[in-house]
Amino acid sequence: MAEETPGPADLELVNCSVTFLLLIILAVLLSLAGLLRQRQLLRAILAGEATDRCPDPYPLQRAAGAISVGALGFFFTLALRGWNTARAGDSPWALHLSHVNLWASLLVLAAAILRLWALDAARNTEEPSEEAELPA
Length: 136
What we know:
This protein is mainly alpha-helical and 136 residues long. It has 3 helices and no strands. The protein has helices spanning 8-46, 58-88, 92-124.
């Protein structure tokens, strides 16, 4: 099996990958900032202080989740492209590895989507009042 010579499209793909990896790093930093806000809020609650001056961690967490989903979606499409390329080739080992990579990318993307959904669901769920009856 002869390997193809890399071309400008390959360089562009690597450049895009670098960009999306940087976005994942940004998402991690936003998650850290959100966690630090959460810690500040928790410290205020434990100290019996007013929490109205504590910044809300949700916008940072939401942005981090959205960026993660987008970047992981890009890497899933790369895995899908690799799997399709391997299917057209004649190497069972390359096909097997691309299949594993495709599943790994899909599961990571699904986890990020579920985490973002849970964050939004938790934000949009109202706590029941003490008078409200819980379902049996």
